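This entry is passed on directly below:
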Amino acid sequence: MGIWRRKRENELEAEVRSHLKMAAQDHAEKGEAAEEAQRTARREFGNVGLVKETARDAWGWRWPSEFSEDVRYAARVLRKNIGFTAVAVLTLALGIGANTALFSVVNGVLLNPLPYPQPEQLVTIHESKPNFDSGSISFPNFRDWRKDNTTFSMMAVMRSFSFTLTGLGESENLQAEFISTDLLPMLGVKPLAGRLFVEGEDDFDRSPIALISAGFWNRKFGAAQDALGKGITLDGRSYTIVGVVPASFQLRLGFFQPCDVYVPMGQWSNPFLRKRDAGLGIHGIGRLKPGVTIEQARADMSRLTEHLAEAYPDANKGVGATLFAMKDSMIGSVRPLLLTLLSAVGFVLLIACVNVANLMMVRCNGRAREFAVRAALGAGPGRIVRQLLTESMLLALAGGGLGFLLAVWGTQVTLQRLASQLPRAGEIGVDWRVFAFAAAIATCCGILFGLAPALRVSRPDLREALKEGGRGLAGTKQRSREILVVAEMAMALVLLIAAGLMIRSLSALWQVNPGFDPRGVLTFAVSLPPAMRDSPPEAIRAALRSVEDKIASTPGVKGASLSWGAVPLSSDDEDLFWMEGQPKPQATHDMNWAIAYVVQEDYLKLMGIPVLRGRFFTAQDNERAAHVVVVDDVFAKKYFGDQDPIGKRIVLAIKGGVAEIVGIVGHVNQWGLDSDDKQMLRAELYFPYMQLPDDAMRLSANGTGAMVRFDGDGQATASAIRAGLKAMNGDQVMFNVQTMEEIIADSLAARRMSMIVLGVFAVLAVGLASMGIYGVTSYLVGQRTREIGIRMALGARPRNVLADVLGQGARMVGIGVAIGLAGAFGLTRLMASQLFGISATDPLTFAGVAALLAVVALAACYLPARRAMRVDPIVALRYE
């Protein structure tokens, strides 16, 4: 067998030499010396290794030995062309890495199932009310729902809270959850130590018990087993520890935060908890019975709410139930954002593949003689395609490996900077799905950018290829490269326009007047000493005045106000009312509704909210004075039209009593800077803090808000206030410190994230597209060296050559920009819901971005164009 193979190789080598002789004759016909032609032909074609490789082609392909030979040969070829290999691998790594990093986020947030047993059975439950589709649930209504429903195997509610912990070192604020007994078993939680709550322990007036988190157990008790059965003092009341919740348990909903302590719902000492018309921020989760659909559960809940509306018309008229799949509730509005970004990063990958395909076509054109010799020696089209695909797959795998490493790094950076803005951030990581995704797109990329060039050179014209003399193949191959560049430019323009729209949208949001001055404003919460919790309301009011005075006297503080509930863009409170003189509405459904700010007299001044008419509160508007309110201009226009509301009186359903309107102030964008744009204008009213009812005043001892205007550094001011409050009483705790500027930044975080990511993708796309047009223009200049030399020898000026080359590049750029504008006009409409203040087809953005991309692309053409205008005619003609 070995003798026969060597004989066949010798025969094929002789055949190659005959082709070399023919090539030499062709060179001689062009006027070259025969010896020089022979040397040129032998230098270019006389590689015996190539002959032997091609000889093997003629005998067919045998796995695995010949596959390994293909790989080794491809590796040698790529190693000899290290510049091409490095550019191709880096280009692919950027595209694959960006796609893989974003897929890791999409996988963790959207694709992974929830980490609970049978997660498809879990739904979130809310009350629907006239003002809210997904409002909070009254605890009495929940108890009836749990008892009478027929579609849920379990139903539970929860409410975030905070306690002041004393007796275990320095007093501190703990994040807590009031929960019903079914919540943790429903979610598959097993206690790390002790037990969970059992049925009935969430009823009213039961002995106070608590579950603690594993982190709190380690931090305060050193994970000792004897912590079970011990008491912890929360808000001055002793709770017996009955179990430890494992650290792995996390329920990431907008209304549920990681916490230290879990307490049965019935232990909440809120007097409104027993009222059927009070929601109090309570929301629910249910587990559907096997085989029950969410539509059936909605019908069942509709039946229950209609029954309760008949039984309790004053509280439940117009009240329904809203159900969502739990995963949809956790993901919220981030789904369309992530899908938009995933589509955008797909464009980056396509541009990278097009770029590498262009490079491969240029390289294959330069190897036309090699493929012609292989074909002459018996290699079929499939063999040539296989060899080129092997090379492209090696490039793709190298790019995929480097891209995967970039994706690991990119995912870590994303989590460090954006974890607080992403639901399920703890579940984002690089797992086997992400690795499989990277491998899959690397394989697809290898086939995508390798197949087209391979097919083009798989059937070469032998005589023409050997006669070409270094100019390569032209015609359709040149047009193919130009088409690829046009595609790159079009996709890059779409991404650049999307990023431009997000930048302009965010800029417009930053220019919105929120209705107040956020600069130099600090917000936080203060809990009074636990000993004050059961004090008379008069004592609590006196203590709060002392706290406010202490805060106001802190160095650097220019003004201070207590605040109950509503903090602009962060949290809100509400009140129901009707006009004095009108009959009381028979149900809450028929009452008017407004956002309510409960504040002190300095609030308006420190927030910079203008008084339009009348006055704001004074120190005389206290608990002994007649009740007053101040309304905003939206309230005045909505409820009084052209009448003067000052002096009119309204009846407040929650705050209690009749209140006189004494002033009109400017409107505040309570629900976001874009709330006016979304037709979410809501009436607002202001109520004096000291006129709160006694029951509400007792609740404020557990934690009341405060706002200050400060000079200098916010952190230093917060530290000084905290030290002053501690000096008053060591059990007073200050927590949840934020500046208003931070709150505004948080409200724009999702848009900022999409702007940053789209911007990064757009920069990558433009860079890759510029590389593509630079590479094609450089190649075309090289191919036209003889032509340019002749033109310059005949008198063409350098500027004419420059204009010609730039014109060729401008033609590709112009076509790409035109196609990109048409594509962007349709695609950007999909992101209209994420924009503010501008249209999805904003002409200024489209025109500006198109001009920017055209300038960048033409700059990429300029360098090879300058090289063309410096061609020496003598050298060019001698070379040819």
Remarks:
- The CA atoms of residues 622 and 690 lie 5 Å apart.
- The chain has 28 helices and 21 strands.
- The longest strand covers residues 152-166.
- The mean pLDDT is 80.
